[in-house]
Write a structure and sequence with these properties.
Helix content of chain A: under 10%
Order of helices and strands of chain B: EEEEEEEEEEE
Strand order of the largest sheet of chain A: 1-3-8-7-6
Shape of chain B: globular
Structural class of chain A: mainly beta
CATH architecture of chain B: Sandwich
CATH architecture of chain A: Sandwich
Strand content of chain B: over 45%
CATH superfamily of chain A: Immunoglobulins
Number of domains of chain A: 1
Number of domains of chain B: 1
Strand content of chain A: over 45%
Number of strands of chain B: 11
CATH class of chain A: Mainly Beta
Largest sheet of chain B: 7 strands, mixed
CATH topology of chain A: Immunoglobulin-like
Largest sheet of chain A: 5 strands, antiparallel
Number of helices of chain A: 0
CATH superfamily of chain B: Immunoglobulins
Structural class of chain B: mainly beta
Helix content of chain B: under 10%
CATH class of chain B: Mainly Beta
Oligomer: heterodimer
Distance between the termini of chain B: 37 Å
């Protein structure tokens, strides 16, 4: 399966700061999703982004499939952005492959 | 539009017992995938069901089995529970006819004592 490396593993931000999360993957992908896992365990869809750039409010994401990486940008962070962020690419099969995630803590 | 639902929310079982977890997909979705998430780790793929058949399986023993019903809902069964089966079990649904974005349910937290 596809190997996924996310960095940094942990990120502590002051409210209002900007940040970039990185996801490297080991093989070509057909699609890629970014999720935010809240403290109750719910995985919330952020982006479906096999390639290119998308924006949704304060969040944006870029996937460069040919170079096997994706980036998630958080701007003007808020305490509600705290949680674990997962990148999950899918190759030529049906499963999503998850990395260990980036744990984001936003302090007021 | 109802999202993915799972039941029960929490479950406590004893080693050696059997457990059944349930999942109803998002409206309009026909494919269900199951994932296991151990504490501090990312979710791991167990298997995926489409048209009532297992389409792909991850690296899990035969103690893990599943079923999909004609209404697209699904069950995950785990036999002979081990302490290591304690985890959050997540169900995801998607549609074969559209882009394959997967949507997750709230999960079932299983504790094996």
């Amino acid at each position: 399966g596809i190997q996924v490396e996310q960095s940094p593993p942990d990120l502590i931000l002051q409210e209002g700061a900007n940040s970039t999360l990185r996801c490297n993957f080991s093989d070509s992908v057909n699609n890629l999703q970014w999720f935010h896992q809240n403290p109750w365990g719910q995985l919330i869809n952020l982006f479906y982004i096999p390639s290119g750039t998308k924006q949704n409010g304060r969040l944006s994401a870029t996937t460069v499939a040919t170079e096997r990486y994706s980036l998630l940008y958080i701007s003007s962070s808020q305490t509600t952005d705290s949680g674990v962020y997962f990148c999950a690419p899918r190759g030529n099969d049906y499963k999503l492959s998850f990395g260990a995630g980036t744990t984001v803590t936003v302090r007021a | 539009d109802a999202g993915v639902t799972q039941s029960p929310t929490h479950l406590i079982k004893t080693r050696g017992q059997q457990v059944t977890l349930r999942c109803s997909p998002k409206s309009g979705h026909d494919t269900v995938s199951w994932y296991q998430q151990a504490l501090g780790q990312g979710p791991q793929f167990i298997f995926q069901y489409y048209e009532e058949e297992e389409r792909q399986r991850g690296n899990f023993p035969d103690r893990f089995s599943g079923h999909q019903f004609p209404n697209y809902s699904s069950e995950l069964n785990v036999n002979a529970l081990l302490l290591g089966d304690s985890a959050l079990y997540l169900c995801a649904s998607s549609s074969l006819r559209r882009v394959s974005e997967q949507y997750f349910g709230p999960g079932t937290r299983l504790t094996v004592t």
